Amino acid sequence: MSFPRAAVRHLERHVARQHIQGTLRTAQLGAALCRATASQASWRPSPRAGRSYATVSAIELEFGQPVHETHPHILKAGEITPGITAQEYADRRTKLAHSLANGGIAVLAAADLKYRSGAVFFPFRQESNFLYLTGFLEPGALAVIQKTGPDLGDYEFHLFCRPKDPRAEQWSGPWSGLQAATDVFNADSAHDIAKADTLLPNLLQSATRIYADLPSPNATVAPSLPNTIRHALPKPNVLATLQPLVNSLRAIKSPAEVAAMRHAGRVSGRALTDAMRRPWAYEKDLHSFLTHAFSQDGCGGEAYVPVVAGGPRGTMIHYVHNTAALAPGSTVLVDAGGEYGNYVSDITRTWPVSGRFSAPQRDLYEAVLRVQRRVVTMCRADAALTLDQLHRVADNGLREELTALGFQGLAAGDGGGMDVLFPHHVGHYVGLDVHDVPGYGRGIQLKTGHCVTVEPGIYVPDDERFPKHFRGLAVRIEDSVCVNDDGPIVLTAEAVKEVVDIEALRDY
Ligand code: GLY
Ligand code: MN
Ligand code: MN
């Protein structure tokens, strides 16, 4: 069966526009995309034998990432990445294009594949803005979003990527190719990335403003595609930074994004709770248990290098060696989370290795927990607070709690070592990246759809300024939270955190 590509494109844009007007459901777009993708798998009769033979190789029917037709166990019809539909990607491009100046063009480069040595590469991770606007998960690609008029939907989406190449794909595994760029990823035009050097200057020539995020020309490792963009600029003074515009879109999560983050949080939270059920002798064993658990239920594995820090190693904020033995009687601080559909979960829990808190461990833990709970409840749009204001609530609350526990000189405003005891911010935005929307300030009032972490911590070094029985203890409690109109949605609630709940995990 074949379905004319131009007709699909027309339908997709038509559907996208209709959807923006709220009159059509995404299922129709999904169905159109199914037809489009199915058309790639056309079988033609052989003229010589009265039988049918495939005229395309298996590689031609493979894509550089799961699509619904090849991986229905991962993607529902209409989805480009888990939980996010083609319609939602089209809506994102529509909104971005609308925010550009008249005659503006946004140019985004895919991430490069990074090499460890020789031909041995690190796992590929797509550049987050490129991913947010395209859902295309390959290196060697450029996205160009060209505003063509003043109305919502007046834009062209050009995708430069690698054409199908069975010989190269025999080594690398499949990639998607130009046909899929239009039929699956809904580009208005697809081009060979090898021709970007010649085609991009033509595209950019007429732009009144070019939005891109280019690394400094002095960067030690200059990615190849940004150089292509730089060379294509008609005049450097038409260049504007793209990040703030994409940040404004990315910062407020859609219902589908919140659902993806809930899924990541649910699976990751359960993994942490399961880890707390059992005694661990080594940080490494606990780490590998979590790595496996973060790959369950459709999740994509670790969202970041986790901290698995026994005893005083928890006072080192980014301790990631995770190689030491866990001493009975000590606590373990674990900062770990998985991801689902590229959306991450950021969680920290601290618990006693032996399953029971000692008195000082419990006192310090409950002090941090009270503050953490208080700040979580303030993650609501009707409180109209900023992350910086939440930080001050946490800082003041921790000072009061520690003073009640016998710490000296911590009255609000005094130093007293608070810069050592609580050296980091109480939270950050979270989403496609653990530290999401870089450059988006913490002085912005939290609104419905903002997703943030709440992670107060107290790290007591072996220092005579602090009560002896707390020295060497480290407690951080972190949840990922979505701000809702009149209350928080705790995305990571399945990781237990009450003392009674943690201790009850070993009661049977
Ligand atoms: N896991 C990194 C952080 O909590 O910021
Ligand atoms: Mn965090
Ligand atoms: Mn964390």
Automatic annotation (TrEMBL):
Keywords: Aminopeptidase, Hydrolase, Manganese, Metal-binding, Metalloprotease, Protease. Its EC number is 3.4.11.9. InterPro entries: Aminopep_P_N, Creatin/AminoP/Spt16_N, Creatinase/aminopeptidase-like, Pept_M24, X-Pro_dipept-like. GO terms for biological process: proteolysis. One of its GO terms (cellular component) is mitochondrion. Its cofactor is Mn(2+). Residues 84-220 form the Aminopeptidase P N-terminal domain. This is Xaa-Pro aminopeptidase. It comes from Lasiosphaeris hirsuta. The lineage of its organism: Eukaryota, Fungi, Dikarya, Ascomycota, Pezizomycotina.
